[in-house]
Amino acid sequence: MKILVIGAESQIGSALESLLTERAVAFEKISFSDASAASTSDLEKRIRAQQINFIVNADHIDGFQTEGFTQRELEQRHVFLPQQLAKVAESLEIPLLQISDYRIFSGLNDKPYTEEDEPHSQNLYGVTRWQGELSVQRFTHRYIILRVGSIFCEQGNNLLTGLLDQWRQGRGRELSKTQQLSPTSTSDVARVVYAILQQLECDAQVWGIYHYCSADITTPYDFAEVLLAARVQFVGVENEIIIRPAQDVGAAKNKSGAANAVLACQKVLNTFGIRQRPWRGELTRLVQKMSLDNKSAGEKHE
Question: Residue 264's beta-bridge partner residues?
């Protein structure tokens, strides 16, 4: 197995690179910008020369960063590049695994979204994501589209790092107690991607769309409480941190009054045997790891 990771600089791409390195799996990587700048023929030549068996488009924009992108930039990332990769994958007869996410949906459902639910995003990010999925389905039949939940990790800007940065500055923010989500660590996403690729390597004919997010539905407010408890345990808190509930005025809401960002994951379990993992343990592990890393960095500077 040899994998080409597109967008290895993204949070999901970085986690996948770490997992593949740890497991001594052969891979090559191309940044989003380099992949976008290359022509279809150049990409095809490069992939053929490197004897790639699988393409993974791990390019992903976290929800905290989407507001800074123009329509043209989102279309380039979400529509044109997946279309280009799908054409290359079809020409070379190799599978393409395309990362997508929950934001293709409106958030108005009362229940977790299944793969059969019709995407109906209310923002440009979600619309272009959906258009990219359609491009993949149109130009290749050897595809896996993996929609993931709201991600977190120790790098970049996401729910975890955003909260920690605010707390370090002695600031807090109001957090929703009604929005429903299943926070998913990028290392958990990488685990799922690799497990799928392993089964594709055995010639499993399981093309299509799949959902994955961590087990246990929560809210941003409750996520912050778990994070704060872990931070107190491993780091200590100099200033008192108060977590305040938001009013959720103007948010997209379903009949129960909550914005829904939860994905149903029965299909990925039935097809690949991939079970959801709880996010709380992974969050605690990450906070501990970040604490140890900071201590080690401090000791080196002494």
Answer: none
